[in-house]
């Protein structure tokens, strides 16, 4: 049966957009902002630190940040309508 993989997002800032194709070897590219020159890359949870160090060693990578979407509370309980 299908098992859900534990993955963490990395925000990778680039010097040039043309180098975005090279990052497909590191993980799954979910989003690429050409205007702000960054992309969101998902990697397996147990390989996060190893991939982060490899990315920081590349010449075309300016900065690497961890995505904090798992830290957000996604329990949206209640009505979305304002009560008068």
From TrEMBL:
Name of the protein in its database record: UPF0298 protein C4K46_05345
The UniProt record lists the keyword NAD: no
NCBIfam families: PRK02302.1
InterPro entries the record matches: DUF2129
Keyword field: Cytoplasm
Pfam family, one: DUF2129
Location(s) in or outside the cell: Cytoplasm
Family: Belongs to the UPF0298 family.
Top-level division of the source organism's lineage: Bacteria
């Amino acid at each position: 049966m299908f098992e859900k993989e534990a993955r963490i997002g990395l925000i990778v800032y680039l010097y040039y957009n043309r180098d975005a194709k090279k990052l497909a070897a590191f993980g799954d590219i979910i989003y690429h902002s050409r205007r702000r020159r960054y992309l969101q890359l998902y990697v397996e949870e147990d390989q996060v630190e190893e991939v982060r160090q490899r990315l920081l060693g590349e010449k075309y990578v300016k900065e690497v940040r961890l995505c904090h979407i798992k830290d957000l509370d996604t329990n949206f309980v209640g009505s979305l309508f304002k009560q008068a």
